[in-house]
Design brief:
Number of strands: 7
Strand order of the largest sheet: 1-2-3
Strand content: 5-15%
Largest sheet: 3 strands, antiparallel
Structural class: alpha+beta
Distance between the termini: 55 Å
Oligomer: single chain
Helix content: 40-55%
Length: 271
């Protein structure tokens, strides 16, 4: 079975609801050559090759006629504004509705697949607070998560393998409930909706966070993959090495604007 077939055969994990403001990506640098040593992209990892990769200021965007393109589609702010307008045009066409399917009022799970920059999912969450929107685990506000096919597939296989191994990784959403069941009181949950992977955000604090999150994520791919993929999921060594290289390449790509939700849960021992 090929790596792609393995990915497609894995059941996607439970996901989180996307809410909050859009996370704005920084514009790619225009200057040629590597950035200065104090650049946010010039971060050291264990290998010199990765430091060189992270220090690169070349982003795979193409500029034509004053517009920014990725592949054949524009993806700059003007295009995102256009997609926002498309959303509102279709809502007008449907007399304010977000869908045509005959779903119940108390719908519990909704899959957001190919619905643009995320505004549809946010509007749906506002209208149906009982619903849990299902997304790829690594998200983006501008659709670039679709360009991380191998990274998304890696996460699906990893989570499926962790379940088979008896140590499931997708547990953060259950922490609050489990602490309450264990007897803790005044249990609180805080979800930071968008922690970036990479130094792509325009916000300087998020850029700094994303820079180091990328480093630890690359290391996680290298450390988590061998045992789960080979021992539990029966991947071959050569197949695995090629796949890991593709995953890391996508994670390092500054034109892919991934982020993850982070859960903080705390409580008190009963008096």
């Amino acid at each position: 079975m090929s790596a792609q077939e393995r990915q497609e055969s894995v059941t996607p994990p439970l996901q989180d609801t996307l809410v909050g403001d859009l996370l704005e990506a920084d514009d790619p640098p225009h200057e040629e050559g590597p950035p200065d040593d104090d650049s946010v992209y010039a971060v050291s990892e264990n290998s010199a090759s990765y430091q060189t990769s992270l220090a690169s200021s070349i982003i795979n965007y193409k500029y034509e006629n004053g517009r920014r393109y990725y592949a054949f589609r524009p993806n700059d702010e003007t295009e995102q504004d256009r997609m926002d307008l498309v959303h509102h045009v279709y809502r007008l066409l449907l007399n304010g509705k977000l869908y045509r399917a005959p779903i119940p009022d108390n719908v519990q799970r909704v899959l957001d697949l190919g619905t643009g920059i995320g505004i549809w999912a946010m509007d749906f969450a506002d209208e149906y607070p009982s619903a849990e929107a299902v997304y790829p685990r690594w998200l983006s506000d501008d659709g670039t998560a679709e360009n991380a096919e191998n990274a998304q597939g890696w996460l699906k296989v990893l989570i499926e393998g962790s379940i088979k191994f008896g140590k499931p990784l997708e547990v953060a959403v259950d922490w609050k409930e489990k602490m309450e069941q264990a007897g803790f009181v005044d249990v609180r949950e805080e979800v930071r909706k968008k922690m970036p992977i990479g130094a792509w955000p325009k916000d300087l604090k998020l850029k700094e966070i994303g820079k180091y999150q990328l480093i630890q994520q690359i290391e996680a791919v290298e450390s988590y993959t061998p045992r789960i993929f080979s021992t539990v999921m029966n991947w071959g060594e050569e197949e695995l090495q090629v796949y890991v290289a593709k995953v890391k390449k996508e994670l390092r790509d500054p034109s892919i604007h991934l982020y993850v939700p982070i859960y903080f849960v705390w409580g008190k021992k009963p008096a």
